Amino acid sequence: MKYSFLTLITAGVILFASCQSKSQTENATAKDSSAQTSKTATSAGTPVDVSKIKVADAKTILARKQVPILCYHQVRNWKPTDGKVGKDYIVEIQNFKDQMKMLADSGYHTILPDQLYAYLNTGAALPSKPIMLTFDDTDLDQFTIVRPTLDKLGYKAVYFIMTVSIGKKGKFVDYMSKEQIKQLADEGNVIGSHTYDHKNFKKYAGKDWEEQLDKPTKKLEEITGKKMTEFAYPFGLWNAEGIPELKKRGFRMAYQLSTKRDEKDPLFTIRRIIASGYWSPKTLNNSIKNSF
């Protein structure tokens, strides 16, 4: 791929963000009747055996209380060239650290996809105040800033990788190398797929399934030595017609943003909210409570 094309792609990702507006929320009225916290609940990084779990029916999954899932992009200080929209997806460094401290001080425990999968399908116990942290687009600051910040708190996260940008230096942002991605995986974080170059999932046809899913999956599995089971939709956009293609390729769960979950395939329309660069830790805390 020519560098000019890469620059165009990366500029588009930053300008339009990698997700839909954070303002969309689903009124999560479903309540889980059984307690989901326990002294035996696993914490992030603790292996969970999901090999024998049978997928529950959609009604059962939808009835369980949703786990808060945050979506981050860039973590860096704002620049004079950053526009109003761009700043929504750029959380400044100290603000990010303050947000993470707020989560820790508020008693939140990070969980990973295995735990979420077990909980949604079987009702397996989770730590008290579970939360999942996700980071999209392979940005280098997720390794240099996010990783040490989370390590200090004992937190783990999910990193959704866009493979076109691995190891690249862009006009607006630099990206993680293969070695850094592997290190994140080796340290107990989860690596997921975020397509090749962020093409809208709703427009896939023909060769797109190979270019946007098959090749990136193979590359990430070669880098990490681990099977890719998690997928994040570019821009948070999805359609029901594409879900069978994800299932065919062995994906177990897929993550959108804050629109309503699909009534037939809730595991492939798991909700997240974007942590806005304009939000203080207090605002973030309120948004978590209101959105989930």
TrEMBL record:
Gene3D superfamilies: Glycoside hydrolase/deacetylase (3.20.20.370). The keyword Nucleotide-binding does not apply. One of its GO terms (molecular function) is hydrolase activity, acting on carbon-nitrogen (but not peptide) bonds. Keywords: Signal. It comes from the Bacteria. GO terms for biological process: carbohydrate metabolic process. InterPro entries: Glyco_hydro/deAcase_b/a-brl, NODB_dom, Polysacch_Deacetylase. Pfam families: Polysacc_deac_1. One of its GO terms (cellular component) is extracellular region. PANTHER family: POLY-BETA-1,6-N-ACETYL-D-GLUCOSAMINE N-DEACETYLASE, PTHR34216. This is Polysaccharide deacetylase family protein. It comes from Pedobacter kyonggii.
